[in-house]
Amino acid sequence: MLMSLQIRDYALIENIHIEFGRGLNIITGETGAGKSILIEALGLLLGERASNQVVRKGANKSVVEGIFDVAGNSKVETLLKENEIEFYSELILRREISLKGSNRCFINDTPAPLTLVKDAGNLLIDMHGQHEHQSLLRTNTHIEFLDELGEYDDELNAFILKRKEFVALIAQLNDLKEKESKIKAERDIYEFQLKEIDEVSPVEGEEEQLKAELNILENSEKLLELCSIVFECAYDLEDSAHNLLVKINNALNSLSQIDKSFEEIAKESDSAVAITSDIADFVRSYKDKIDLEDSRLEEIRERLASLNMLKKRYGGSLEKVIANRDQLRSKLDLAVNFNEKTEELKASIEKFRNELGLVANQISGKRKKVAYKIKSEMEKTLDYLGISSASFKTEIANIESTNDVNSIKLNGKAYKHNPRGFDEVEFFISTNIGEDLKPLAKIASGGEVSRIMLALKTILAKSDKLPLLIFDEIDTGVSGRIAQKVGQSLKDLSKFHQIIAITHLPQIASLAEHHFSVKKVESQDRVASTIQKLSDQERITEVAKLISGENVTNAGIESARQLMGITDK
Questions:
Q1: Among 135, 285, 415, 552, which is 20 to 30 Å from 439 by CA?
Q2: Torsion-angle region of 129 (φ positive above 0: left; ψ -120 to 50: alpha; else: beta)
Q3: Is residue 475 a contact partner of residue 503, using CB atoms and an 8 Å limit?
Q4: In the beta sheet, which residues pair with residue 254?
Q5: How far apart are the first and last CA of the chain?
Q6: Are residues 533 and 515 in contact, defined by beta-carbon separation less than 8 angstroms?
Q7: Please, what is the average pLDDT of the chain?
Q8: What pLDDT is stored for residue 523 in this prediction?
Q9: What angle do CA 365, 371, 375 make, to 5 degrees?
Q10: 106: nearest Cα among 120, 118, 119, 92
Q11: What are the CA-CA distances from residue 122 to residues 36, 177, 259, 364, 466 (Å)?
Q12: Would you say 29 and 36 are in contact if contact means Cβ atoms under 8 Å apart?
């Protein structure tokens, strides 16, 4: 639900903050007071286009910010996580329109592209009235409305997943066909390059080992010289470190026999003699292994030269050379077995085509049952809302396809498909007796569309997932008894959704759970639109104004109280 809306420096609005409540929120006000501006501002959170002309005179930018309670809304959570934005129980959408023409969008204070703000808004708000964002007037949404009532989610999800695999296989086949001539033409090149790499047969990590060994071999004479010096000084000379330490050690052991305080240092002396012996043994062993032959040295240098040649030609590092070798093997395998690969793909695609056709047909059968059910309910509800003698019909069509690969099949026939099956769904309606049914998307009257949507939403109320429904001009062309019914339908719908409705009719306004009044005020030779949440007493007065005009009469007050069901005075 929309918890609060902040609008700053937008058209006639200087700065307003509105806190909406659950249930039915009603907005009233005189024509031109700014109600439409309020709806336009809300439209910004749905990704609608904005011009810098909306920036209030004297300001640098317009700001519209909505805070939504999205706790438990898994669709919003998934959308944010997919776009690496933190998800909280409260979602903040904000748009800033600069006087310079720049347009900045934020989600939870994180900069976001307009398309993402639009996607988030579409998961939160459905706006109905003479606005761009009327989902009912988009034919492609009709199938979604129908599926909301159906109990075939498992089949739908199975179709969606299988279709993704199907589409991926087609893309893979098309990619192969596009590359066919290139793959076959470059087969000789692949063979030559792979042979060149395989002749050297590089091994991951060998370059570092070879360089370490090369460094030792190139310094073998120096190593031999230094090892000889260490061995002689440590052990071999008459006055070597070992001989001198042995003399010291013997003297310290004799001293310890006389004075026990020498025992600890005598033990340290034992260790020194042992360490010197270990050093001498290690250096002697190492010196004996030093190879002064040049054969291994040349062998390593030649191997490193071969590896460097491969690095220059195939990627700059041994890891990339090995990766290129694997890619070349795959390309060559594809070039050699191209026809076999394409036939395998075609067979898999054909299998998917038939499987998808069966699932789509199952969904279609269940969808037709829902369409039959919705027809009578819609006609009954529309009659209740003042569109008498209405006829409603859901057309479900399957379009045959000439594109064999990209179609799905049922009983040997090929059909076009979409993410929800192979049905094309469109609502048709006649709002007057004797008139032919026409596509709902071509209905001209905004008020009529709103009531049709209200009827549809009433039927879908328990299954529809959009938390907030906004109705603008819901009362166009209705009055009296029908207005009361429209209001009651809104009230009933508000049990399942948060409703924000702009109205001129007292019958609808009287049912508000939260009532807001929009007014124009003059201050310092400037006009600004303001909005105020009304108290219970102010609500009575506002409803009375809708009944009797600006000059509120006692009769108007009494009528307002009766409409609102207030009996005590």
A1: 415
A2: left
A3: yes
A4: none
A5: 34
A6: yes
A7: 85
A8: 75
A9: 155
A10: 92
A11: 20, 39, 94, 26, 8
A12: no
Checking if the pLDDT of 4 tops 50, the result is: yes
| CATH number assigned to the domain with residue range 1-124+466-534, chosen from the 4 options 3.40.50.150, 3.10.350.10, 3.20.20.70, 3.40.50.300 | 3.40.50.300
Supply the pLDDT for residue 35. 82
Extract the tokens encoding 216.
């030792």
CB-based contacts of 240: which residues, under 8 Å, 6+ apart? 232, 233, 234
For residue 411, count other CB atoms closer than 10 A to its CB: 8
Residue 69: both structure tokens together: 């309670």
DSSP string for residues in 442-509: G---HHHHHHHHHHHHHHHTTT---SEEEEESTTTT--HHHHHHHHHHHHHHTTTSEEEEE-S-HHHH
Q: What DSSP string describes 41-76? A: HHHHTTT----GGGBPTT-SEEEEEEEEE-TT-HHH
Residue 339 buriedness (CB in 10 A; 0-12 / 13-18 / 19+): exposed
Please determine, for residue 147, whether its predicted confidence score (pLDDT) is greater than 80.
yes
pLDDT of residue 521: 85
Q: Where are the domains positioned within the chain?
A: 1-124+466-534
Helix (H, G, I), strand (E, B) or coil at 20: coil
Q: Supply the pLDDT for residue 67.
A: 94
**Would strands 468-472 and 498-502 be described as parallel, antiparallel, or unpaired?**
parallel
Paired tokens of 272? 């020194």
The DSSP string of 367-434 is HHHHHHHHHHHHHHHHHHTT-TT-EEEEEEE--B-S-TTTSEEETTEEE--BTTBS-EEEEEEE-STT
Q: What angle do CA 79, 80, 82 make, to 5 degrees?
A: 65
